[in-house]
Amino acid sequence: MSCTIEKILTDAKTLLERLREHDAAAESLVDQSAALHRRVAAMREAGTALPDQYQEDASDIKDMSKFKPHILLSQENTQIRDLQQENRELWVSLEEHQDALELIMSKYRKQMLQLMVAKKAVDAEPVLKAHQSHSAEIESQIDRICEMGEVMRKAVQVDDDQFCKIQEKLAQLELENKEL
């Protein structure tokens, strides 16, 4: 299974696009649930604050309530149940989107970690090779320097031997010269 950087980047971009789509969908669901919450609150407020806010409509509602209070209550109960069911569905959908988002993010983090590890390995390899080649060069230069040092020691020793021989010969010649 070959994994190229381009493929990883393409997959990361795809995951990012999906993440944005899921984020937008989650925000839409949150907005919808907030709107439903406001509607329910408005319905509650309308039920409790009616006499204070709408005096002229209150008499009409009282008249209607005399005729069909049971029907109105059952309709409201049905609407409330529908809203509660829709709210539960929205919460389930929101949780599913959050789970999907967590899964996507974990995969994204895993791929980014793999990408970073691969990049470090790729970045470190040329440095390691250069270091090894420099080490080999330094070792060969050290060997050459050691060889040159050995040659110089031998040359110094030969030179010292020659100097001693010349000194002896010179002393011998001086001695012979004095005797003559």
UniProtKB/TrEMBL annotation:
Taxonomic superkingdom: Eukaryota
Signal peptide: none
Coiled-coil boundaries: none
UniProt-listed Pfam families: SIKE
Key words, A-Z: Coiled coil
Keyword Ribosomal protein: no
InterPro entries assigned to the protein according to its UniProt record, in alphabetical order: SIKE
Protein family (similarity comment): Belongs to the SIKE family.
Subunit (UniProt): Interacts with IKBKE and TBK1 via its coiled coil region. Interaction with TBK1 is disrupted upon viral infection or TLR3 stimulation. Interacts with CDC42BPB. Interacts with SIKE1 which mediates association with the STRIPAK core complex composed of PP2A catalytic and scaffolding subunits, the striatins (PP2A regulatory subunits), the striatin-associated proteins MOB4, STRIP1 and STRIP2, PDCD10 and members of the STE20 kinases, such as STK24 and STK26.
Job of this protein: Physiological suppressor of IKK-epsilon and TBK1 that plays an inhibitory role in virus- and TLR3-triggered IRF3. Inhibits TLR3-mediated activation of interferon-stimulated response elements (ISRE) and the IFN-beta promoter. May act by disrupting the interactions of IKBKE or TBK1 with TICAM1/TRIF, IRF3 and RIGI. Does not inhibit NF-kappa-B activation pathways. Associates with the striatin-interacting phosphatase and kinase (STRIPAK) core complex, forming the extended (SIKE1:SLMAP)STRIPAK complex.
Name the record gives this protein: Suppressor of IKBKE 1
Protein's organism: Vulpes vulpes (Red fox)
Lineage, highest ranks first: Eukaryota, Metazoa, Chordata, Craniata, Vertebrata
